[in-house]
Write a structure and sequence with these properties.
This protein is of the alpha/beta class. The chain has helices at residues 27-34, 54-65, 97-113, 133-140, 152-165, 172-181, 186-203, 209-223, and strands spanning 43-47, 68-69, 84-87, 116-121, 144-146.
């Protein structure tokens, strides 16, 4: 049978609070974001591995606090006095002078006007490789909250949400089988779901245990 063309359909992500699963791995971060009025300097950095839910938390906080999303990689006008701002993927600005400079001026503007600043990064600020010393010193003074490696409850919730976002509903036994045999990381969960979605379309049938086994074996052969 010739290979079928697989079209990458848009994933309809649910970014609401009800779709965010709280576990021991992220409970402290959720609590920190819910008490933004207590943040020192009105600033916070959320740190955690890729796909751990940082962007989801930022979207929840932005919605509930009427915050605006700013990307320092792009030109932007400074927000109004006292504005609440989110900056996602902060690590991307490292080594890009224009982006670091924009981030530096944004920090100073919010600091001087009493605004709130919530940022997220895949790695700690000290490891990000920032070149602008003034920006580095300011960011290192900000309080941080971390999302830890996923426990089983959170990893199962991540799988369920990833499948739901793709309008897929594998059986509980399939979910349990994936959870038992997959690599224990957030990124691995999203990667497995993406590959199973594609394979299900190729074979034009629901996700099966054999399908999961083949995907996980391919992943192991790639990584091992």
């Amino acid at each position: 049978m010739p290979d079928q063309l697989i079209f990458e359909l848009p994933v309809k992500e649910d970014s609401g609070r009800n779709a965010f699963f709280v576990s021991d791995a992220n409970r402290n971060s959720v609590a920190a974001l819910e008490n933004s009025e207590t943040w020192p300097q009105k600033k916070m950095i959320l740190i955690g591995p890729k796909n751990c839910g940082k962007t989801h938390l930022l979207k929840i906080w932005a919605t509930e606090n009427s915050a605006i999303n700013i990307d320092p990689l792009q030109n932007f006008s400074q927000p109004s006095s006292g504005a609440k701002v989110i900056v996602d993927d902060l690590q991307r600005v490292a080594g890009i002078l224009n982006a670091e400079t924009r981030m530096f001026h944004l920090y100073n503007h919010l600091h001087s006007t009493g605004g709130h600043l919530l940022m997220a990064s895949n790695i700690s600020i000290s490891q990000a490789g920032l070149k602008l010393a003034d920006l580095l010193s300011r960011l290192q003074s900000i309080s941080c909250t971390r999302i830890e490696r996923p426990d089983d409850k959170l990893l199962r919730a991540v799988l369920l949400k990833a499948f739901s976002d793709r309008q897929l509903s594998p059986t509980p036994s399939i979910i349990a089988f994936i959870l038992k045999n997959m690599t224990r990381s957030f990124s691995a969960a999203f990667d497995v779901v993406k590959k199973l979605d594609a394979q299900s379309m190729i074979e034009n049938r629901p996700i099966s245990r054999a399908m999961v086994t083949n995907v996980l074996i391919d992943d192991c052969n790639t990584e091992c």
